[in-house]
Amino acid sequence: MTHPASTTIRTTCAYCGVGCGVLATPDGKGGLAIAGDPDHPANRGRLCVKGAALGETIGHEGRLLAPSIDGREAGWDEALDLVANQFSRTIAEHGPDSVAFYVSGQLLTEDYYVANKLMKGFIGSGNIDTNSRLCMASSVAGHRRAFGTDTVPGLYEDIELADTVVLVGSNLAWCHPVLFQRLAAAREARPDMRVIVIDPRRTVTCDIADLHLEIEPGADAELFNLLLSEIAARGMIRDRDLEGLDEAVAAARLSKGARTGLRPEQIAAFLDLWLASDKVVTVYSQGVNQSDNGTDKVNAILNCHLATGRIGHPAMGPFSVTGQPNAMGGREVGGLANTLACHLDIDDPGHRHAVQEFWRAPRMTVGPGLKAVDMFRAVEIGKIKALWIICTNPAVSMPEADRVARAIAKCDFVVVSDIMARTDTTRLAHVLLPATGWGEKDGTVTNSERRISRQRRVLAPAGQARDDWWIISQVGRRMGWYKAFAWDDPSEIFAEHAALSAVAGALGSDFDISDHARLSRTDYDGMEPFLWPQSPRKRGGRFFADGRYHTQSGKGRMIAVSSQEPRATAAEYPYRLNTGRVRDHWHSMTRSGLSPRLARHMAEPFLELHPMDATRLGLGPATLAEVESAHGQAVLRVLVTDRVQQGHPFAPIHWTGETAPTGRIDALVPAVTDPLSGQPASKSAPIAIRQF
Ligand code: SF4
């Protein structure tokens, strides 16, 4: 349904994990007027520049408007039959693990649920992974080790209420701008509030910091071990009923601080501020997660909050903020290869059995599937013979992106569902399926504080584009499972997901939206943003206030974390490249690149280079640098700045192969991963730099 002009629709922003409410008003000519929703609890009317420019990104320029097979336009029936038949044939000949789905934190929860159900319950493989693997898998692994489930304990208001807010590896000002606005406003209103930023790079976020710790890259675990050691030394351990407490403290005491690169007085100031008040929130993001010891870094942070009891109450706690709009919804449906629906444990046969019974699934996966890096390795060696990529662009965004592109090009059968016709990945597809984009689709997303909000359809689909849940369901039906994928509407999928959460809750899962198991289409249409869990005991959305966790013992679990030595630098690649976002672009710019206003902020890919490095390399401001790693090259405009440390330049991730200078940064990033989470270490690629 397209809404007539002047009907204002309440929806949710397409971009980051803050999950801002948006008021979208069609102008009757295919355009949209955009405003922040004053009634949405995440933003109370605020929007950042990306959200405010959403109306400038809804044109059909470059859109994929019809299905195609090997470059020729095809009808939906022909394309869907081909996909279903090819996947069925491949599974019959080579088994369920010969196929894979690679999906996205930008899918709506209903899309994600259907893809996960099809792969894990009906195809019978765990081979569904998501680009969220690249952004928050280490947080998932850390939460599960500490709490027994992937629980984000905090709420946004905690950040405003805290006396001290610590931002670790987070450029909140650019990556979660409205949350940053909320923090900045709170700090202005309460001048005694303190903000600490821990980041090797002096980002814009540091502008409101009382203390910026320009830590050596990768040394966060060492710093939080020092903190835990100090907590023990000052007799500030409040919760002694924790698993692993003594071991974690003993390991922490081995950290002496040299690895952090910080001066003793900086470390002392950090310890004093963190310990001065119970009301401490530690916000962390990709600088923590995107590391080869990301899970240990997460647990080093969680250890300090667990030990001091600073968790489960207002104004305190660890807080993982997610990058993508629905990374959290993906976690809830079990969209990672090593997770199961509704935060259940894929390694637990009882949990798998319960989900199988609920789905009446013929062939449940027997365990986890391949995580993203391993999945594309399996594609490369021909182990995966049919691949469906949905709503993401791995030929740009995966580490060793050139190698991933070559692997996809070699795969026997590649299906890509996307909104855009021409991306680095769509050009490698045998079958292209046009998907609806933001503004055209209906469903739900979950933001970083576990708040579920509706995204609502405001515009007619472009061309023949269809919703992802519909496309995947159609393939499921054509593979022979008509009844299991017989939804007519996303509200029915959401209700099924909610009903499954009741089953999961009975097995000890934290995820509970069971109040919605019987919702009608009318209820779904009118759904207000809400926090889960909704059980009477937890209503209001706070976890762990009672000191009970989801581990078998019911206790929180501390992890002994050892500091990690920096990886050796090879002589031919002496620099370590840090990577990240810019304020006004999103991922590979398929949407944000359409807005001239957003393009003005940063017009081309660049390399932030310390003045000493620039002098040594003979590179002046605005010259071009050729950047090379063992895996790829890029050409970037030089931006000389002391915001970065010597030896640690920075480049943004957004530019693709079609823009010049060529800024495909993930082509340079090695596919080194955290051994527990499988998350790539995207912030320390060994590179060489020279004049172009
Ligand atoms: Fe959208 Fe994030 Fe900006 Fe909010 S902060 S408007 S969710 S991009």
Please, could you describe this protein's structure?
- This protein is an alpha/beta fold and 692 residues long.
- It has four domains: 9-57, Phosphorylase Kinase, domain 1; 68-133 and 326-437 and 464-484, Rossmann fold; 137-320, Dimethylsulfoxide Reductase, domain 2; 575-691, Beta Barrel (Barwin-like endoglucanases).
- Helices cover 30% and strands 16% of the residues.
- It contains 22 helices and 24 strands.
- The chain has a seven-stranded mixed beta sheet with strand order 5-4-15-14-13-6-7, with helices on both faces. The chain has a six-stranded mixed beta sheet with strand order 20-22-21-24-19-23. It has a five-stranded parallel beta sheet with strand order 10-9-8-11-12.
- Helix 3 packs across helix 19 (490-506) and helix 8 packs parallel to helix 12.
- Bound molecules: iron/sulfur cluster.
Topology:
Blueprint: E1 9-12, E2 21-26, E3 32-36, H1 49-52, E4 68-69, E5 72-73, H2 76-94, E6 99-103, H3 109-123, E7 128-130, H4 137-147, H5 156-161, E8 164-168, H6 172-175, H7 177-189, E9 194-198, E10 211-213, H8 220-233, H9 245-252, H10 264-276, E11 280-284, H11 286-289, H12 294-308, E12 317-320, H13 327-333, H14 349-359, H15 372-380, E13 386-390, H16 394-397, H17 401-410, E14 413-418, E15 431-434, E16 443-446, E17 451-455, H18 468-478, H19 490-506, H20 521-525, E18 530-531, E19 575-580, H21 596-599, E20 606-609, H22 611-617, E21 624-628, E22 633-640, E23 650-652, E24 685-691
Parallel strand pairs: 6-7, 6-13, 8-9, 8-11, 9-10, 11-12, 13-14, 14-15, 19-23, 20-22
Antiparallel strand pairs: 1-2, 2-3, 4-5, 4-15, 16-17, 17-18, 19-24, 21-22, 21-24
Helix pairs in contact: 2-18, 3-13, 3-18, 3-19, 4-12, 8-9, 8-10, 8-12, 15-17
This protein binds iron/sulfur cluster (SF4).
